[in-house]
Design brief:
This protein has about 650 residues and is of the alpha/beta class. The protein contains 22 helices and 27 strands. Strands 14-13-19-18-15-16-17 form a 7-stranded mixed sheet, sandwiched between helices. Strands 21-22-23-24-27-26-25 form a 7-stranded mixed beta barrel. It has a 6-stranded mixed sheet with strand order 7-6-3-4-5-20, with helices on one face. α2 links the parallel β3 and β4 (about 65-70). α6 (about 180-190) runs parallel beside α7, α10 packs across α12 and α10 runs parallel beside α13 (about 405-415). The longest helix is centred in the N-terminal third of the chain and has 17 residues, at about 80-95. The protein is globular. The two termini are about 35 Å apart.
Length: about 650
């Protein structure tokens, strides 16, 4: 990577990484360890993070700031979620973590408002942690165990990313939104186009975008598979922080003159049109005009991507004095309590209710399948970030991703509509100061040693791991295609999210949306097993449950053409082999049900050479790669990151 040496021109990503690096060389593909200023967790992943942190045995978190958010599992259909919340509250008090209570808002929206700091690094157990990049902070999503180790004061390790410079020129035209910018990038580069990369936005067009607009773009950079996305910190950033009463946190941060990028993408904002991502992938993008006329039964406005006050006020301005179509259910979920209070004060909430909108809780909600599942086969237009099949809670629903402007137009007309057909664009001004109220963020006591952790019956231990054996064998229990998401591996939704603290119960639903008979087949054929998959295996959420649940049922390795970044790291963290086919064509030589053997697995991983898999069923050998840093190799040999950390301490 050019520009990494001190004294040379650096881009924003290089400046942040170089100021936080504690080990390794900042060159693409090299493993580096970086210091984390902050961490964030949310309740769907947080219980496991803190169980793992407890197992490390550190009496107090060692980060500068750590926040535990309760924003996913707020639908309390049973005791499970409420029990998790009590556990999280007691952990936060004991170990020195701030707690954002249920109702305070979605982690990424609240963190942007109250805690994100330009030039710092936040590590989060949620794949959309890069939202903070809209404010000039480097946000990185990771598996929960990585966050637990960071809480204990250890660096976070990653491969030094390439930096893609996205040059923005011009200005968005009326009815074209920030969501259309990231949809355009996804249209060009696809869902695996960002693996191993940070997307850094620069150019004259940057100054025309507010921080909430920038955060929409950095949020959905996760759908590119990117390590992170980041904007410079400029006068727009200062204005946002000043409105939050946090101007003291502002620093100017921009690429040096002459800074270079590993790749450059140019997006002319003047030329963009309203876009939608059609089912069932965020990169299945077309102009909304091409899909115009498609009947719409549901519209969802909210999620960590588009739930800011600007988003809500824009929708209200479009709907003011109008009623939604009688065939449409419109639901709106503000991103934070601050946004909700601002909506009330400005009359935005009243306008939405008058138009026929249903107002949901200030939480993640429908984005993660927590309520508002569409009707069978229905078309749902959503401002969320993912539209994987079944993620909405309805397997055959047709989910379109869109801007708030496109979503509002669909709500009014009952069909997918180019919002430019609605007439003049109602501009919305952001308030110079917002209604700040942090009363639902609980500060931990100075000394939490006397606090007792509250554990309900739904909280079970995470699965233990053992050192890698010398020989490994097992059956290929499932053969999958490209772009298998963590939703495909371990589905979300209201019922399953309530089991996030209970791996044994959750493990009965592995691959249930892909193969409803998978649990029965595992019962009939117990023992070690493998997964075979295509490109970009494990895309999407950071949820390590998509590793822990299969591990608890005997998974020993995943053989794929390629892996998504976070999921690959999670596999290593739990001692599961991520094996990449040396020749992708060998994918056709392995079938579901084949018995595979890896002899001398410990010896094979002790070098950088190929790993030879013997297909005993077909009587052939297949080469795979398990490219590891020395640290990752030691983790796998130890049987996972927690075992490795314990070894280092002894």
């Amino acid at each position: 990577m050019q520009g990494m040496v001190t004294g040379l021109a650096q881009n924003v990503t290089q400046k942040i990484l170089s100021s936080h690096i504690v080990s390794g060389e900042l060159a693409p593909g090299q493993e580096i360890g970086i210091r984390c200023d902050q961490t964030l967790t949310q309740d769907a992943t947080g219980t496991m993070v803190y169980l793992q942190f407890e197992a490390i045995g550190v009496p107090r978190v060692k980060t500068g700031l750590s926040v535990s958010y309760i924003d996913h599992n707020t639908l309390q259909a049973g005791f499970e979620n409420a029990d998790d919340h009590r556990f999280l509250a007691s952990v936060a008090a004991k170990y020195g973590i701030r707690l954002s209570r249920p109702g305070n808002g979605i982690c990424h929206q609240v963190h942007l408002e109250r805690f994100a700091v330009p030039g710092q690094v936040v590590l989060g157990s949620d794949s959309h942690t890069p939202t903070a990049g809209g404010l000039g902070m480097l946000g990185i999503g990771a598996g929960g165990l990585d966050v637990a180790v960071a809480l204990a004061g250890a660096p976070y390790y990653l491969k030094a990313p390439k930096v893609v410079g996205v040059r923005l020129v011009g200005r968005l035209r009326p009815w074209v939104a920030a969501k259309d910018v990231i949809l355009e990038v996804l249209r060009r580069l696809r869902v695996k186009g960002g693996v191993g990369k940070v997307f850094e936005y620069f150019g004259d067009g940057v100054a025309t975008l507010s921080v909430p607009e920038r955060a929409t773009i950095t949020n959905m950079g996760a759908e590119l598979g990117a390590t992170s996305s980041v904007f410079p910190s400029d006068e727009q950033t200062r204005a946002f922080l000043a409105a939050q009463g946090r101007e003291a946190d502002w620093i100017p941060l921009a690429a040096d003159p002459g800074a270079v990028y590993d790749e450059t993408v140019v997006v002319n904002l003047d030329e963009l049109v309203p876009l939608v991502a059609k089912p069932h992938s965020p990169d299945n993008v077309v102009p909304v005009a091409e899909a115009a006329g498609t009947p719409v039964q549901q519209v969802v406005i909210g999620s960590c991507t588009n739930s800011s006050y600007k988003d809500m006020a824009t929708v209200a301005a479009i709907l003011k004095g109008r009623r939604i179509a009688p065939t449409v259910s419109l639901v709106v979920a503000p991103g934070s309590r601050q946004v909700l209070k601002q909506m009330i004060a400005a009359g935005v909430l009243e306008t939405l209710v008058d138009a026929g909108a249903r107002i949901l809780e200030v939480a993640c909600g429908p984005c993660n399948g927590i309520g508002q599942a569409p009707a069978s086969g229905a078309v749902s237009v959503r401002t969320v970030n993912r539209n994987y099949r079944g993620r909405s809670g309805t397997l055959d629903a047709q989910v379109y991703l869109a801007s708030p402007e496109v979503a509002a137009a669909a709500a009014l007309t009952g069909v997918l509509t180019d919002p430019r057909d609605l007439g003049p664009y109602p501009a919305v001004d952001l308030p110079a100061a917002v209604l700040v109220d942090d009363s639902m963020i609980l500060l931990p006591p100075a000394d939490g040693s006397a606090v007792e952790i509250v554990r309900g019956p739904n909280i079970k231990p995470f699965p233990a791991t053992a050192p890698l054996p010398e020989d490994l064998s097992g059956r290929v229990m499932i053969k999958l295609g490209d772009n298998i998401s963590t939703d495909d591996i371990m589905p979300a939704g209201a019922h399953l999210l309530s089991l996030r603290s209970n791996i044994p119960a959750m493990a009965r639903y592995i691959f249930s949306r892909v193969d409803p008979e998978f649990d029965r087949r595992l019962e009939q054929q117990p023992g070690p097993w493998f997964v075979l998959a295509g490109e970009n295996y494990g895309q999407g959420s950071s949820r390590e449950h998509a590793v822990m649940a299969p591990l608890s049922r005997g998974l020993k390795g995943v053989i794929a053409k390629s892996f998504a970044r976070i999921h690959r790291n999670n596999l290593i963290n739990f001692g599961i082999l991520p094996l990449a086919l040396a020749d992708p064509e060998d994918y056709t030589r392995i079938s579901e049900g084949d018995e595979l053997e890896l002899k001398g697995s410990r010896s094979a991983l002790s070098s950088d050479g190929p790993v030879v898999l013997v297909n005993r069923t077909k009587g052939l050998e297949i080469e795979a790669r398990c490219e590891l840093s020395p640290r990752e190799r030691a983790i796998l040999l130890a049987g996972g990151l927690l075992n490795y950390v314990r070894e280092q301490d002894n």
